[in-house]
Specification:
Helix content: 40-55%
Number of strands: 9
Order of helices and strands: HHHHEHEHEEHEHEHEEEH
Distance between the termini: 153 Å
Strand order of the largest sheet: 2-1-5-6-7
Shape: globular
Largest sheet: 5 strands, parallel
Length: 339
């Protein structure tokens, strides 16, 4: 009897265990159920998968993008980074003197160059020769073609014993021929109103002087098509001499402006060698070696201190040309005759 009871109890225990086992089995296999939610597997299990790493990188990248400037900011940054700051050899002319003018790396630019002009250029040649004796390679060993009383109008006249043509290699000749014989590739041509503007009629003196200068440029280019012509502005008169009917600062400044306009229209460089020498409406007396109205003074010839400033300005020009950054002045100041 006891054996039967034990057998019954044991059977009941086996049945209960079997029932419990049947209930637990499907619960343990839930992770393999194809109907399990996608969010459950993607949120946790896939963090170690390669695709998820790529997604994480993408999220990091998008987060970094929030610090990138907007389009307007990008344009500003681009514009600022594209602006090249050029350090001029002479950011300001104040303090430049004949005594402290030293050698410059930009002097080499003036190799194969010729300076053309009248007595103002003759005095620049004297300054140049003095500096060249102390500074090797000063202004590139430039050549000069200049003489007193020379002008664009004079150049167009036949060469003769009595003409005012300068000499090159001890022979009088026209400017175009001198450029050709010298083989220079750059001609710095000074406006020469001081010897010409008063020769023309009162009403047309400025335009006539402009035209003769254009004719001279064309004659140089016709015979020397590979030579570059650069125009140097005409300098002015001191107060004591700024009262002539035609040769006065009003007409000189009008010529400078018209010449500048022509240069801008025809791709010719124009260098202002005049404005920084002015004291108000006139050439400063301190830059003029014959400012006093006495003897045969002219009130227009420059001192070595003025030519030191010329040299600094020419070197600045060379720096900008080398860096493809030169632009002509937008305009020249307007001056007047003494009241």
């Amino acid at each position: 009897m006891k054996i039967k009871v034990f057998a019954i109890i044991l059977s009941i225990i086996v049945i209960v265990l079997a029932i419990v086992s049947c209930i637990k089995l499907p619960m343990e296999n839930t992770s393999e159920d194809p109907l399990s939610k996608p969010d459950d597997t993607s949120t946790s299990d896939n963090l170690s998968e390669p695709d998820t790493v790529s997604d994480t990188s993408a999220e990091d990248s998008s987060t970094a993008d929030t610090s990138i400037p907007d389009e307007s900011s990008e344009e500003t940054v681009s514009e600022e980074s594209s602006q090249v700051v050029i350090e001029l050899p002479y950011p300001v002319l104040d303090g430049v003197t004949y005594a402290n003018l030293a050698a410059s790396e930009y002097d080499k630019f003036f190799e194969n160059s010729m300076f053309v002009g009248n007595s103002v250029m003759v005095h620049f040649y004297n300054f140049y020769s003095s500096k060249k004796s102390k500074i090797s390679g000063f202004l590139g060993g430039s050549k000069f073609f200049a003489v007193g009383n020379y002008s664009a109008l004079e150049d167009a006249k036949p060469v003769s014993e009595n003409s005012w043509h300068p000499k090159y290699q001890n022979e009088k000749m026209k400017c175009a021929d001198a450029v050709s014989q010298s083989g220079v590739k750059r001609v710095f041509l000074s406006l020469m109103a001081l010897n010409e503007i008063a020769i023309h009629d009162q009403e047309t003196c400025v335009d006539d002087n402009l035209q003769t200068t254009i004719n001279l440029i064309n004659s140089i280019k016709q015979k020397n098509p590979d030579a570059e012509v650069v125009i140097l502005s005409n300098t002015y008169m001191v107060y004591n001499f700024n009262s002539y009917p035609k040769l006065n600062n009003g007409n000189i400044s009008a010529l400078n402006n018209k010449m500048l306009e022509y240069c801008n229209q025809n791709g010719i460089d124009f260098i202002d060698l005049s404005t920084f020498l002015m004291d108000g409406n006139v050439l400063a007396d301190k830059y003029c070696k014959d400012a006093a109205r006495e003897g045969d003074n002219k009130g227009c010839h420059l001192t070595n201190e003025a030519y030191a400033l010329w040299t600094a300005t020419l070197r600045n020009y060379a720096c900008l040309k080398i860096n493809n950054a030169w632009t002509n002045p937008a305009s020249m100041p307007t001056y007047t005759k003494n009241p």
